[in-house]
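cache lookup: miss for this entity combination. No prior model stored, computing from scratch. Input as submitted by user K.M.:
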Amino acid sequence: MAYTHQCIASLARLSLASATRPTTTSTIPRYLAPSVVQSRWKSAGTQAMQAKEREKEKLKKKRKQNRFKDYKHAVPSKEEQYSLCDAMRYLRAAEVGRPPKSVTYEVSLKVRTLKNSPVLRNRIRLPYPVKNDTRIAVICKENSGAMAEARAAGAVAFGEESLFEMIRKNSSNLPFNRLICHSDSEPALKKANLGRILGPKGLMPSLKTNTITRSVKALMHEMVGAENYRERIGAIRMPIGNIQFTPKMLAENVKALIAAIKENITVLEDRVSKDLIEVVLTSTNGPGFPLNGGFSSTDEKVLPAHLSTAM
Amino acid sequence: MVNPGKRMHILKAKLLDLRHGPGAAILPPEITRIHLDFALRWNDGHYGPRYAGALTLFPNGEEVCPISTADTVPSFPFPPHRKFWKICLPRLKYWNPAIPMLVNRFADQSLPATMSIYFRKAEEEAEATGRNALPLAQQPHSSTEGEHPAPPPEKGERVVTIDMKGVHSDAILAEFMRKTGATAIHPTPDEEVEMRQVEELRERGAVDRAIMKQWLDNKRNQERMMALARQEAEAIKMANQ
């Protein structure tokens, strides 16, 4: 049997509930309303409209799927591009008074590419090298023809076991900054287990980096004064010249680099499609200028000779 | 890659700044080269020609002038009257690209800080002789080790020097303009419009940044309050158990 205060409590709750939850404003009670009365439905539309809708959905989905597959890129308009001499004029002004040893022109080539596609990487020998401190070591069979070739071409170190021993002993202070390997010595190199030491330095010879060869002489000739480039996050960045270069020298370097990269792209063409979108010239401390491919300055008074004075 | 619109706004502002402001002037044709000699650090009166951090007092007790010219060079975050090299020289170089402007710095702070301006005597016409005939690699260049002090004048050249020790860059520029007879460059109407646009963008950015900061602060505040409340609730729960 229920106590009276319990009843009162439950009544109080009821009254409270009715106060907090206002009743619907409609005058017809819900159970009296016919079931067909509905506030509003989305109109189904004609068949063509439905098809259009479906098409839209599909496109949306596709866009969503493709969204993060390639690196973000944007194509700047023509008005935002500069000729080489204009860019050089600004950059030389921005770098005034700095020792030329510590300042370089740099170039950044934006490439439209998928994230999972093979990257562009190769070696290039610029017409006017930026720096010339290539010291090559050659892994080759002792007393072989390749070793004589290496010695003649001016390698700083060569040999097989002796070289491995040297690398193991003073791995922190190697006398060379490029390492190539004769293809006969490749098994020995694999057995030597030097990947731990050479890998992080980027010196490990491999077919991918084009540093294992049959002809040591030709490769060494190609490597002296050559620069490696590699596409990273949709762009290739590399130094292209000293601040003291004349416009002509710089133009030749840029042209050579672009030609090499275009060739590289055509080689990869059957596997992936890549596009060179933009070439941006900058310097160590200066702003970046998208190039329009022109050479001479927009100001007729500024000649290339004016941009070739000492810095 | 940064969105191109944003990138171009930034580049435009930078280029306008490089073209116009103190130091934008065209030098007369008889000037062959400009050479600055000063020390690597700013102590002992070498602050005028080079960049120095925002210190309020120099070691000799001299007070730095208040930042009065800040509105003329708005994009530089540091007081602009102490750095002839960083503020005026790029603009001079932009308007006179053919004239070599070398900066020779050295470690000894006690040496004088001087600017040498080389004038060609009017009757002798310019041709590649002497210094300029050498290949670029052998010509004197800017240096941080005092390798190339101001060279003696060549035949048919005279040198005018400006003492830069203990002088602010504004004063250096004024003396430079007087001694060289350079004609100052003023922005064209188009460029003035552009400059105004850049300024507007900057103001707009400051306002937006303030709004954004307030919103973020509010959000963080709320989160902190929530965390605090949750902690208290936990504590009460623990106490009750």
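stored under new cache key. The CA atoms of residues 4 and 10 of chain B lie 10 Å apart.
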